[in-house]
Specification:
The protein contains three helices and no strands. With 87 residues, it is mostly helical.
């Protein structure tokens, strides 16, 4: 997946996340759902998102795209994770 960047219109972002939801609806349910991609987000460490984002985050605050992906993941009971290797 490659999401619209932060400066794109809200309409374009809404359409992307609607299409993303349709992808989950089309495929049968399995024990694990894994979605990989570049979502053009900054995901922060806000306490209200703790169950979805866990503890390890570089940024303090999420940007608009970060909140969108957090809300999308939360609605599907997914956990967000970032790069897991040493840079």
């Amino acid at each position: 997946m490659h999401a619209p960047s932060e400066e794109k219109s809200g309409h374009l972002k809404d359409r992307f996340y609607e299409e993303l939801e349709q992808v989950f609806v089309i495929f049968p349910k399995y024990h694990k759902e894994i979605l990989l991609g570049d979502f053009n987000t900054i995901v922060g460490r806000e306490n209200i998102f703790k169950l979805t984002i866990r503890n390890e985050r570089l940024h303090q605050d999420s940007n608009v795209n970060g909140v969108r992906i957090i809300n999308s993941a939360t609605s599907r009971n997914l956990v967000l994770n970032s790069t897991m290797y040493l840079h």
